[in-house]
Amino acid sequence: MARLVARALRLGRSALIQTGLPAGAYRQRYRVSYLLPVLMWPDPVILVAPTPLLEHLHGVEIPRLQEWLQTEKPIETYSQNASGRGLMLADPESWLADSLAANSQLRSNIPTIIDGVDDLEVWTRQQLTASLQPADWNDLMQSEPMLAEEILQVRVLLTRAVFEHPTKPDECYLLETAEQHILEGLLARIEPNRLIPAAWSNFWHRWQTNGQLRWAQIHRSSGSFSLYCAPVQVAEVLGQIWSAVPVVLIGCAVDVEQKAPIFRQTIGLPELTSVKFSPDRQNELIQLYIPNWLPLPNTPEFQGVLIQEIRTLLLMSVSVAGLTVLIVGDVPLKARLAAILASEFGSRVQVEKTEVGENGILVTGWEFWREHQGELSAPHLLAIATLPLPSMENPLVAARVADYKERRQDWFRLYLLPAALNELQRAIAPVRERQGVVAIFDSRVIHRSYGQQVLAALSPFARINYLDTTWLTQA
C-alpha cells in the first residue's frame, strides 16, 4: 500500500485499494502504510476520511509518525483558507462540497487519499440531496407575503396527500405524480423571485435536474413532513473529480473482483491500478455456520425457527467470554428477538448501544453495526438473520431498481447483490481478529445461484452446517 501511495504521489497515477478491513476500526494499522509516504512527500496532499477517524489520526497516529520520521510537515484542516502547503485533513462533506463546486480552488492537481470509499456513493448522494423541512414553509411565506395564502393551501394539500400513505417503519414514500404536480405548481410561481430562501432555491434547482429521486419523510407525531430530492446515480458527478486529480481510494471490500468493475461503474471511476488484499488464512479465518435445513426468510415459519436457533447458540456459548452480536435487519423482528432474549438473559441483552458489557449480547441492525463496530470489542460470535439485500419495500431502493430496469441493466447483479456483499464483508471483518464464529441463518446462501458469490465474499472460512460446541468454546 505504501508503494502504491508513493507512486500516486510521484507519478500522479490513481489507485484503488481494497484492504478487507473495516474503515471505521481505529485499531487497524494499515493507515500507517499511507501516512508514511504522505508525511514524507514534500508537496501538499489531501486526506479525506470521516471526522472521528481524522481526529484519531491527527491526535494519535500522525504525531507518532512525525516524531519517528523527524518530519515537520504542516497539518491543517481542509478549507478555502488553508495554506495548501502540507497535509490537509478533510471530512467527506467539506471535500465534496468544494470538489463539486465550479469555483473550487484547492482540488486542482493536489493528490488526494480517500479512506473509507465503501461509503463514497452515500456521501455523495447526501451532499447532493436538497431538502425542505417543516420550518422552511414559514420562511417562504415570510419572503412571499403576497402568496402566503396560496403557499399555505399547497402545504395543506400536500399534507393531506402524503398522510394518506399507509404507516410503515421507515415512513419514507416516493412522491406520486399528483403530489409532484401540486409542488411543481408552487415552485413555478415562486421561481422568479430571487429573494426566496436558499432552501427553496436549492430544492427547485435540484428538482429540475434529470434523474432525481423525489420523496417525502412523514413525521406523524407532529403532523408534518419533509421533502427530499437527490440524484439516482452519482457516477457522472464524481467522474468530474477523477479527471482532475490523482486519487488513491481505500476501502474495505468495495467489489468482489480485484479490478472492481461494478464499483468503478457506480462512482464513475476509469480504469486504474487496483489491488485487493485478501484476509490471511492463518490468522483471519472465521468459523462459518450455515444450517441447510432452515426455511427461507419469506416463509411464515422463518421467524420462529430463527429465534429458537439463536437462543440455542447463546445457551451453547454461555461460558465463552466476549461480545455476541446479533444482526437483524427487520425492525419488528429485531424488537421481538430482543424482548425474548432479555426475558432469559437479562441485562446482558442491549439493543443498539455501545455501552455493552464484556459478555454482552448486542441486538442491532446493519446500519448501527456498520457505524459503531469500531467502538466495540471484536465479537466472538456474530449471528446474521438474513442477507443485507436492500429491501424493495424501501421506495428509494425500488426507484433505483426502476432506473436500472429503464436502462436495461441487471439491477440485481449491479446493485442489490454488490450492496449486500459489501455490507456483509464489512460486518464480519472484526470477527476475523479473534477467528470467531459467524452464523448465517439465511438459507438463500445455499439454495440460490448467487450463494457461491456470497461464500466467496466470506472466504477464508471453515464451514459447518451443524452446531459444534468445540467451535463455540474455542472462539
Would you state the CATH class of the largest domain?
Alpha Beta
Cα distance spanning the termini = 31 Å
Task: Report the average pLDDT across residues.
Answer: 90
Bulk shape:
globular
Counting DSSP E segments of at least 2 residues, the number of strands comes to: 18
CATH architect. name of the largest domain: 3-Layer(aba) Sandwich
Low-confidence stretches: none
* CATH H-tier superfamily of the largest domain: P-loop containing nucleotide triphosphate hydrolases
In spatial order, strands of the major sheet run 3-4-2-5-10-1-11
> DSSP helix count?
19
Beta-strand residue percentage: 15-25%
Outline:
The protein has helices at residues 2-11, 31-40, 51-69, 92-99, 120-127, 134-143, 148-162, 177-190, 198-207, 235-242, 261-267, 302-316, 331-345, 366-372, 395-406, 411-432, 444-447, 451-458, 469-474, and strands at 15-18, 45-48, 75-77, 87-90, 112-115, 130-132, 172-174, 212-219, 224-231, 247-251, 273-276, 286-289, 324-327, 349-351, 361-364, 381-384, 437-440, 461-464.
If you had to describe this structure to a student in words, what would you say it looks like?
It is a single chain. Strand 8 and strand 9 (224-231) form a beta hairpin. Helix 2 crosses helix 3 (51-69). The two termini are 31 Å apart. The chain folds into 3 domains: 2-125 and 234-276, P-loop containing nucleotide triphosphate hydrolases (Rossmann fold, 3-Layer(aba) Sandwich), CATH 3.40.50.300; 130-231, no CATH class; 286-474, Rossmann fold (3-Layer(aba) Sandwich). The chain is α/β, with parallel strands linked by helices and 475 residues long. The protein contains 19 helices and 18 strands. The strands form 3 sheets. Strands 3-4-2-5-10-1-11 form a 7-stranded parallel β-sheet.
